[in-house]
Amino acid sequence: MVSGQREYWEMSLEPPTGERFEEGRTYPIAYSGSEDVAGVVINVSAYGCVHTVTGDLSFTRLMRDDDGAIKAFAATFTLRCDGTDPALHGTIHHYA
To answer: CA 39 → CA 20, 22, 65, 93, 95, distances in Å?
Structure first.
């Protein structure tokens, strides 16, 4: 979650069922993860996608701790919320 200038953004990421995210890989996305599809939920100042999410998510950097938990990452995404155009394009950096 990030906030500033009277807005907040919240994004949840879920790898495809039975997998873990990998650096250098691009995943198709949907509202919830399934086999070969990453789950992405995005909310912006209390507004979020209601029905569908489509697009892709690419990890350009991913670091794990000794237990395998993600400790830092950088990713880019293209997201269409409820079939709208144009798509939302973004970059996420978490300690990377």
So the answer is: 12, 15, 23, 18, 21
C-alpha–C-alpha distance, residues 40 and 49, integer Å: 10
**Model confidence band, residue 51 (pLDDT cutoffs 50, 70, 90):** confident
Tell me which DSSP letter residue 12 carries. Answer: E
Query: Rounded to the nearest 10 degrees, how much is the dihedral formed by the CA atoms of 84, 88, 89, 93?
Result: -140
C-alpha span between 44 and 1 (Å, rounded): 10
Characterize 34-60 residue by residue with b for buried, 16 or more Cβ atoms within 10 angstroms of its Cβ, and e for exposed.
eeebbbbebeeeeeebeeebbbebebe
CB distance 28 to 38 below 8 Å = yes
- pLDDT value for 46: 61
Let me know: does 9 contact 43? Beta carbons within 8 Å: yes
